[in-house]
Design a protein that fits this description.
single chain; alpha/beta; four-stranded mixed beta sheet; 9 helices; binds adenosine-5'-diphosphate; binds magnesium ion
């Protein structure tokens, strides 16, 4: 990367792609992406080149549900989880790249946006494979769950009286398989959408790789990308303006800035960041900064511009 260029990895959260439960259609998702594109292009207008990571939880849920229903009703073939992941990367990438391009054109910025279907290698010896914990797909009756376990090798668990669900492992990302392509694109000034949904998990099998039924945390995968491309900034865009201590408790306190050491101490205390939402973000940021990263910010899409000026957001530094 040349001296004067500033490169950021922006991990965009679920709220950037689906506003709420009442706005989930393809058109709704498109409009949410359009709104997000404005905030991202503001950042580009301020001189940043960006690589964009994003979540895909609800979208993979929709794809799986279509697959399940079509299979049950019409006997259509089902979609494996890795293919649902790649489908979601394509559809979400399409909505983002088209909206970003439209917004760039509108402002007369001569750049393009493009999506990379991205595989991320995971380690089959990752302890996560011993304890699959991420629920995937619809609820099932016990009999169906038992049949899936026997015939398809699924791991299934009972979810607090609400029925049975498939669970899959959530291993750590080890390697971004398309990294060199992503680097070349960013180097060329292309706004690059990659590691969607944390990437499609693949495992090495001799000389080949193949998809595996797992999910990778998008905050970890995006953080890893930020390290790999030596980004100047790792920005996590979610639905809170700042990170809080004692989140949701009477003594809740918003944080403007913290060091890695402080973030680790708060993680250690275990009472500040909720598991499965803010905790993985802070862990991903700590890992990014401890692996040579320079700066990270957590804020929401509408405050990205102000956060970059140091006016809001939570700033985490080495
Ligand atoms: P995303 O799709 O962006 O990953 P998540 O729901 O996983 O979104 O994480 C963001 C959520 O984390 C916020 O909406 C907030 O409710 C929750 N959260 C948990 N702990 C904290 C905290 N300490 N400070 C701020 N938000 C927190
Ligand atoms: Mg999340």
């Amino acid at each position: 990367m040349s001296e004067e260029r500033k490169v950021a990895v922006v991990a965009i959260g679920g709220n950037s792609l689906i506003r709420d439960k009442d706005h989930q259609t393809v058109e709704d998702q498109y409009l949410a992406a359009k709104e997000t594109a404005k905030h991202l292009v503001n950042m580009i207008e301020q001189g940043w080149d960006i690589a964009i990571g994003h979540g895909n939880g609800p979208q993979v849920g929709f794809i799986l549900r279509r697959s399940e229903i079509a299979h049950r009703v019409e006997g259509m073939h089902e979609l494996p989880l890795d293919v649902c992941g790649s489908d979601s990367q394509g559809a979400i990438g399409y909505a983002l790249q088209q909206n970003i391009q439209n917004e760039l054109r509108k402002r007369g910025i001569d750049k393009i946006a493009a999506t990379v279907i991205t595989q991320v290698r995971v380690d089959p010896n990752d302890p996560a494979f011993q304890e699959p914990s991420k629920p995937i797909g619809s609820f099932m009756e016990q009999k169906e769950a038992q049949r899936r376990k026997e015939e398809d090798g699924w791991d299934v668990v009972e979810d607090a009286g609400r029925g049975w669900r498939r669970v899959v492992p959530s291993p750590l990302p080890q390697e971004i398989m398309e990294l060199e392509a992503v680097k070349a694109m960013i180097e060329s000034g292309t706004i690059t959408i990659t590691v969607g949904g944390g990437g499609i998990p693949v495992i090495r099998d001799g000389d080949e790789v193949r998809g595996t039924a797992a999910v990778i945390d998008k905050d970890f995968a995006s953080g890893m990308l930020a390290n790999e491309i030596d980004a100047d900034l790792y920005l996590i865009s979610t639905d809170v303006e700042k990170v809080a201590l004692n989140f949701g408790k009477p003594d809740q306190e918003w944080v403007d800035q913290m060091t890695v050491a402080e973030a680790k101490a708060y993680l250690e205390e275990g009472t500040h960041f909720a598991k499965g939402s803010m905790e993985p973000k802070i862990k991903a940021i700590v890992h990014f900064l401890e692996s040579g990263g320079k700066k990270a910010i957590v804020t929401n899409p509408e405050n990205i511009g102000r956060a970059l000026q140091g006016e809001t957001g939570t700033h985490i530094v080495p």
